[in-house]
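Sanity check

After download, print the first record. It should look like this:
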Amino acid sequence: MSATAPLCILFASERAANSLVAGIPAAARGMMQLHKSNAKHPVVIAVPGGWEPSSLCRSELERLAPGTVLHPTDSDIVEAAGWIGGAAVQSMTDDEMRNIADSWTDVVAADVAGLNQAAHRIVASTGKPGDGIVSRHLNRPISQAITRIVLRWPGARPWHATLAAGLVGLIMLACLLFGGAAGLLAGAALFQLASIIDGVDGEMARATFRSSARGAMMDSLTDAATNLGFVGGVSYNVYMNGDQSAGLAGALACLILANGSAMLGWQSRRDDANFTFDGLKHRFGARPSRIRQWLTWIAMRDFYAFAAFVMIMLGGATLLLYAFAIITAGWFAVLCAFLPNWKKPGESS
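Expected structure tokens:
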């Protein structure tokens, strides 16, 4: 066999080779890694009978493996130095890639059904270790189901999901400001929906290798605006319906939340880190304990969005606003206690 014979990533059909999530992005990353591990061999994507890459396929390969030349190949006629099934390329270790010696007959070509199963596993792995208890058990399963559906559209991008979450937030605010008692209930349901949709953009980004600092910043800003809109909208709704004291308590909570969020955003920029409002959560959990873990969970959006939804549905909007005021004041006090000794990531304490 020629020393320059190609390493072949094998798909069962043209449709499979052009597929998104488990197909092209994984194959592109595989091509890049195989180039690093086996520099003496070219890498090709092969399909029995040959195939024609779609424009999306070519753009994804250029994005994920820049500079790599795509060679669409007929697996029936190519002489290969090694074969790898397209669905397996994403899970291979470096050692496995360096020691590819499989024959074509030993490799399972990636068909559409197998790639769909692999895509399901990829999306299922997009949860984050820092997910709260509500997100882990309720929000994430629903958002991942939405992500799997959205990713069937080749043109879907994470920012579409961010925009959708922002639009839900705007509708929520309109319901709270102008909908009266019915609007209060609708706003609570929409806030919980926004909390669920909030996970979709990150899942899409991780599943298709599109994570970016700008995308994370837009997601954080949308979340913060929706949070403030909800607290302020509920406060206005309750105030206008006759409970001025609770409405004022909620307005105070909204003001504290806005100031604290601005401080966290400003601090993240001072740290030369990606723009985020999660700095306090990360530092508060640096020395974990059961109490700290529960306090962190309670302060996370997935928990308070769901708790607010339940309380409002049960007629507890007034109690909710007092609770928001107390909890937000405590959160702000902790923030102020941490800020004087705030260390940049990587600095010793």
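If your output differs, re-run the checksum step. Summary of this record's structure: The mean pLDDT is 84.
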